[in-house]
Amino acid sequence: MEAAVVDYVIIAAYLVGVAIFGIVSGGKQKSIQDYFTGSQKIPWWAVCFSIVAAETSALTFISIPGLAYLTNLNFIQVTIGYLLGRIVVATVLLPEYNKGNLKTAYTFLETRFGGKTRSFASVVFIFTRTAADGVRLFATAIPIYLMLNIDPMIAIVIVAVVSLVYTYTGGIKGIIWVDVIQMSIYIGGAIIAGIFIINLLPDSLSSTLSRTSISEKLRLINWGFDNGFAGFFAQPYTLIGGLIGGAFLSMASHGTDQLVVQRLLAIKDLRGSQKAIIGSGVIVIMQFAVFLLLGVLLYAFYGPMDLRSDEIFPKFIIEVLPIGLTGIIIAALLAAAMSTLAGSMSSLSSSLMMDLYLPLTKRDLNDQQKLRISRLFTIMFGFLLVLSAFFFKESSQAVVEIALSIASFTYGGLLGTFLLGILFKKSKQEDALAGFVTGIFIMITVISLKLVAWTWFTFVGVIATLVIGGLLSKYNEREF
């Protein structure tokens, strides 16, 4: 059953309203400082909400309920690791960043090692973010093409174009304030959907949850020791794997990824940045718990189905929720997901502009010229994200796992290089580049041979980078 006319009207009005709000709240952009950092005038709590919306909106809304539908609540172990990783970012990385005038996350690497390391890290970020957020863009298009009965590629283009409109004009300030509004709306929509499911269950909630097939899905902890040593590392959602993997992934994504660091740079002081990053970790745990429980309720409502996991919650939204509410929830999902894409376009553009274009071309440009080029880069990345989404649309794997696997693929080398600069005071640029490249190549091997689950990727990459970079720095130190 397709959505009613009133749902279409709500969705269309919502998309237009969000775009306008993003443009207006962003204000007039006069320089790339306004465009990429909001002139550091954004309050910490707004950035906190923006971080949550940017990292989890589309994937959480669509794929996490599907993951719980297929398995259980073990993913919550990873979110505890997310919080631990953010605490490390707040206490270790952010104070280092605060010592200088950072323009992007990778300015630190140039200050510590040199321009080559900064450029290489920026290139790695650009390729990784484009691929991972292409997956997120496809995830966002799922409910649109299911509801409108249109080609997925058309749905992808619609989402990307609307995102691009207010990113191009409103900059990071407009993006952040859109995030603040949308986060509360899409979480509220998920809670409302859960209440509807509970009211539709034939038995009471307590009776439903006590059924054997359902109670097994409520397992929070998986020790993972029941399948031997190799089986332990092959499972993504064990307690140790979740805590370590989640912590290192969060340290990388929130301490070295321009998508998040750009938001933290929009806060004027260190204390505010620390509150924003730790606060986002607390909110993320609660948010993932809501969506995991929603997946369990969907299983209780539908039972086993021969359907892609990422389509289960959209199916409920479209076919079961009443007219009007369907439009509101889908519109909230799209707006929140567009904020993620908008942040991606902005962070990719800022990294290309500040880390590569300006340092390498050394052109003497005025503020208006820099702003115009930055906006052209934003358009370019909007196009590239669409192409990336087309590439991943045929995959049968849950989109959340695809995106996190892609991110983990290079995050290890990236985070390891940052930690090398902090922990090994005498390490040089050659040591950092060697460790970085080695970490990536080791991950190619690990992924190709499927030696461990994706939750271990970042950890393995960090250790490889630190060992190689650290040994080289010690060797070079003895040589001289």
Name the CATH superfamily classification. Sodium/glucose cotransporter
What composes the largest sheet?
Answer: none
Instruction: Give the H and E element order.
Output: HHHHHHHHHHHHHHHHHHH
The radius of gyration over CA amounts to 22 Å
Helix content: over 70%
The end-to-end span amounts to 74 Å
| Poorly predicted spans | none
Beta-strand portion reads under 5%
Could you explain how this protein is built, in words?
- It is a single chain.
- By secondary structure, the protein is mainly alpha-helical.
- The protein has a single domain, classed as Sodium/glucose cotransporter (Up-down Bundle), CATH 1.20.1730.10.
- The protein is about 80% helix and about 0% strand.
- The chain is globular, with a radius of gyration of 22 Å.
- The mean pLDDT is about 85.
SSE blueprint and pairings:
Blueprint: H1 5-26, H2 32-37, H3 44-70, H4 76-97, H5 107-112, H6 115-148, H7 152-200, H8 205-210, H9 212-215, H10 228-234, H11 239-255, H12 258-264, H13 270-302, H14 312-319, H15 325-361, H16 367-392, H17 399-423, H18 429-449, H19 457-479
Helix pairs in contact: 1-7, 1-15, 3-6, 3-7, 3-12, 3-13, 3-15, 4-11, 4-13, 6-7, 6-14, 6-15, 6-16, 6-17, 7-13, 7-15, 7-16, 11-17, 11-19, 12-15, 15-16, 17-18, 17-19, 18-19
Question: What's the gist of this structure?
Answer:
The chain is mainly alpha-helical and 480 residues long.
Notable characteristics:
Sodium/glucose cotransporter; mainly alpha; 19 helices; 480 residues
